[in-house]
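Ticket 4471: requesting a sanity check on a complex prediction with uridine-5'-diphosphate. Repro inputs:
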Amino acid sequence: ASTVGVLNVLNFVKKIRKTVMLHSSTSEVYGDPNEHPQKESYFGNVNILGPRSCYDESKRMAETFIYEYKKIFKLDLRIIRIFNTYGPRMRPDDGRVVSNFIIQALSGEDITVYGDGKQTRSFCYVDDLIEAMILIMNQDEIIGPVNTGNPNEFTIKELAEMVIEKINPDLQISYSPLPQDDPMPVSYTHLTLPTN
Ligand code: UDP
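Returned structure tokens:
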């Protein structure tokens, strides 16, 4: 979807011309970043061969396609990079951190923090993301990429504590191993990660 699919859409836009294509890229293009917060000018720190790499690398390639099609065929293209978005209508079994924690708290279960919870994320509310998408589509000076996140990063532990406080103060945090190549704050990138 992120490579062949994007090329198909680009070729379609090339054929019909009179349209703006917004490419939804991702903060994953930064991999496990060495800069916090990430500016659009940062090139990232992506593992080529890790379990997340097929996603990261394909989204990076898609951005390159957009730039080349813009340059060669002068198409009306835009790129935003979506950060961790949350809001109504997330699937309960989505597996992402916000929905997991809320579902666990509502079910009276412990909150499952992976690693020590000091990893950070930039959470974006879905309405803000949609507003950003509309703004970038309705102008033609900025092609992007434009990062759509939160100027403040929050630790996963802070998120767990907020969910516990708001939903059920009796719940506990249960810690389990961090998945491989999980993006970490810069001070963690050269440390040995906890294995349990
Ligand atoms: N995470 C967690 N518990 C969960 C789900 C996720 O501690 O039940 C952590 C996960 O390891 C990561 C962060 O929360 O460090 C965000 O995970 P998510 O899958 O939501 O987003 P992504 O890693 O793609 O940014």
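Notes from triage: The longest helix spans residues 53-73. Leaving this open until the requester confirms.
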